[in-house]
Amino acid sequence: MNNWIFLLVLVIVAVGVKADLAPTWDSCQCRWDDWVAWSSCTKECYGRRYRDRKVWVSNTEGCTEFSDCATSDEGSELQDCNTFCYNGGTYISSYTGCKCVAGKYGRCCDKTVTCAKPSKPGNGEVFYSGLTYGSTITYSCHVDYNMTSGVPRRTCQGNGGWSGDAARCQYVNTCSSNPCRNGGSCINGVESYKCQCQLGVELTVKTMFSPL
Ligand SMILES: *[C@@H]1O[C@H](CO)[C@@H](O)[C@H](O)[C@H]1NC(C)=O
């Protein structure tokens, strides 16, 4: 009675086959060994795991195959595992994994969207306390420079990009070099200036009175 032999499962997965013991289970004097430990899950979330068990036979007369004791699906088990998504994600399929809330990504939604480190504008500064989803950056321009394009405040979006465009700072105090002659007054423009001459002022005064 002590000469048991081990028979292994040969077929690993037999989907759809009804689990059953072989008609020769008793005559072969079969008995189950313990299940081995589950395999590790194939995926970090929503994967599959596998385990199998061996069968012992005592009567070895014509009892040499696992199938003399049971069908192959009786010797193995396949199961879903890690059936969860992180951060409020919802499961979609074994192919795509989880659908994540805004700002999270990855098969299991365990990763947080981050935006690229913004660059400092010329003649200005950029401020930020973080680069993750929802973080904001603000720009400012140095004295005598105006923000002529872009936006002063941008937000890190779900697609990993900053909203709006980067700020541009341009010089707006060209008049500081006193470019106007003969008492003309200077009007600052973006990297430019305009001189308003004395004569122009007189003409303006004149036209103001002429219609009367
Ligand atoms: C620069 O910005 C200031 C403040 O908004 C504004 O008063 C000024 O007209 C701007 N200068 C130019 C040249 O656009």
Please supply descriptive tags for the structure shown above.
212 residues; mainly beta; Complement Module, domain 1; four-stranded antiparallel sheet; three-stranded antiparallel sheet; 1 helix; disordered C terminus; binds 2-acetamido-2-deoxy-beta-D-glucopyranose
Short description:
Helix content is 6%, strand content 33%. With 212 residues, it is mainly beta. The longest helix is centred in the last third of the chain and has 12 residues, at 198-209.
Walk me through the structure.
The chain is mainly beta and 212 residues long. It folds into 4 domains: 5-81, no CATH class; 84-112, no CATH class; 124-171, Complement Module, domain 1, CATH 2.10.70; 174-209, Laminin. It contains 1 helix and 15 strands. It has one helix spanning 198-209, and strands spanning 5-7, 30-35, 47-57, 76-81, 90-93, 97-99, 104-105, 111-112, 124-128, 136-141, 145-149, 153-155, 168-171, 185-189, 192-196. Strands 1, 2, 3 and 4 form a 4-stranded antiparallel β-sheet that branches. The chain has a 3-stranded antiparallel β-sheet with strand order 9-10-12, with no helix packed on it. A hairpin with a 7-residue loop joins strand 9 and strand 10. It is rod-shaped and about 125 Å long. The structure holds 2-acetamido-2-deoxy-beta-D-glucopyranose.
